[in-house]
Fold this sequence. Notes:
By secondary structure, the protein is an all-alpha fold. It has helices spanning 2-10, 12-33, 46-95, 100-122, 126-153, 157-179, 186-206, 219-235, 247-257. Helix 1 crosses helix 7 (186-206), helix 3 (46-95) runs antiparallel to helix 6 and helix 5 (126-153) packs antiparallel against helix 6 (157-179). The longest helix has 50 residues, at 46-95. The chain starts with a helix and ends with a helix. The model has no long low-confidence stretch (mean pLDDT 83).
Amino acid sequence: MSALFNYLVSNSVILFFVIFILSVSSALAGKYLFKKCHAKKELVDDGTKIVLGAVLSLLGLLIGFLLTISIGGYNNRAQMEENESIAIGNAFQRAQLLSPENSKKANILLNTYINARIEFFNAGSQAKNEKWRDISLTAQSILWQLAATESRVAPNPVIVSVLTAFSDLYVSEEKTMASWRYQIPGAAWVLLILFSVSANVLIGFNNRGLRGNNMIIFILPLLTTMALFMIAEIDIPGEGIIHVIPDNLINLRTDLFTEQ
């Protein structure tokens, strides 16, 4: 079940149509399955209205809560991107403390590293993310070996600071990967869709006595689907229309490597 929801959330366009069709079908089912009930009851049932109002209120609270969670995850990923740019800038500065030959090699490796990190944020798919992450990890490992080799030849506090800066590259990348996940669990999506379907069934039930005039029951499915689509788009790590753009990394690459 969790895998199914992760697939739907990662394909937010499919999710949009699935939830919209499900919501509209629920509203129409509520209208036509109970259309004979109005023979002995008033057209507008006060009890149903109370239940509908409660369900809509809870649905609104749930949507707001999950939207807050998804935005929090998005902001966390954006913060990790900023931290990575700081770590790379610091590593570039410390790399200049190496011997001239190693410093030149380190600059080339850092250029490869920052390009890989930018492509990671822009990849748009898990397979490409893994590819660029492997490239950045390889570059970081070579940087570490470069500084470690020089530290064995001439150990001193300066080279220790270089090793620390190169180690921070790995730490910052791992923190990014820790934030690179869905913030909203599958169970929350199930609950959200359940409330949405229930609200639409009740709206259809309230309109069971009206012939034709189905436009009003399309309003809630459309608005609900748009809200869920927005939540899914924000919650997808690195995919979809809404994702973290590595502006800090791009600006840093321009500042450090354009003139080299």
